[in-house]
Amino acid sequence: MTEKMIRTSIAKIGNNRDKARIWIQGNYLELAGFSQGTPIKVDWQKSKIIITKDTSGDRIISGTKNRPPIIDLNTNKIKEIFDKELQVKVTIYFQRIIIEKT
Prior knowledge:
Helix content is about 10%, strand content about 50%. It is mostly beta strands. The chain has one domain. The strands form 2 sheets. It has a 6-stranded antiparallel beta sheet with strand order 1-8-9-5-4-6. A 3-stranded antiparallel beta sheet has the order 2-3-7. The radius of gyration is 13 Å and the shape is globular.
């Protein structure tokens, strides 16, 4: 059985407070099970980042009452994985997100 892909998109690698940043926001996150307040685990791998819904995760999906959920990764670990890339591919599955080179 294959996973159902909910969405794939290209995201810019930005910068905030001298750290690399990937910002993911939208109602499609809720379709994937990532509602505001949901704990997540971020797995920093050699060539990609995998985000999973995980009750023991050390991060929480943010957002506000009238706005869609937000996943904000703001760390130079992003630079370590993607080097000089300016954008990444974000593929969203149910309860799993994969961020990799385009």
